[in-house]
Amino acid sequence: MKSFTKAAEGLNFLKISCLVVLTLNLSLDFIWASAAEMGDGHNMPTATLDNRQAALMFNIGPSPVIAEKNVDFDIKLMDNKTGNNISHVTLLVTITKAGQRVFTESLHTHDGNLKIQFVPTAANPYKVNANYDGLSASYVSDFGNPIKVSGPIFVMRGNYTVSFEITGVDFDNVFLPTPIKFDFSIPVAG
Ligand SMILES: [Cu+2]
Predict the structure, then answer these.
(1) Which of 25, 103, 163, 186 could bridge 95 with an S-S bond, Cβ 3.0-4.6 Å?
(2) CA 172 to centroid of ligand 1, rounded, Å
(3) In a domain, 1, yes or no
(4) Could you tell me the distance, in angstroms and rounded to a whole number, from the CA of residue 20 to the centre of ligand 1?
(5) With contact defined as beta carbons under 8 Å apart, do 163 and 181 qualify?
């Protein structure tokens, strides 16, 4: 496994490290847009968050994703040492297709489990069904319910790019000086 650290600007006590564990059923192409790198030989790229090792888990269902069917995202950031969720994670989630942004929102999870359900509809613009949290300036899923997004996302087959930018951890309103960004290529079948 390859490790790397990245000094955060302006805050020299903070080293960003993050281990991404993919628990996907489908084969995803990894594109590292910024800080992260792919681990050698397996799907575990690493970075560092403080002195913790964090694992980003991303499950997507169904596998493969089918156009016009509901798509479920299950995302969590775990402390690799303790196995506990890292709580109060703020993520900027962006989905693009053919260079067009079809979804972008800041989402937050207090307990560390973030679930999103995309319901493909013709409604344009898309609608987010979740509470908005002013502190984190994000939508929050409550008590295990997914954040529901209805709209023209995953309505057509083709390749989609899903980007997660971790913008904050541990607190609702404290943000990382440099977000950690991960991009996934998701093929959607017709
Ligand atoms: Cu929180």
Answers:
(1) 103
(2) 4
(3) no
(4) 21
(5) yes
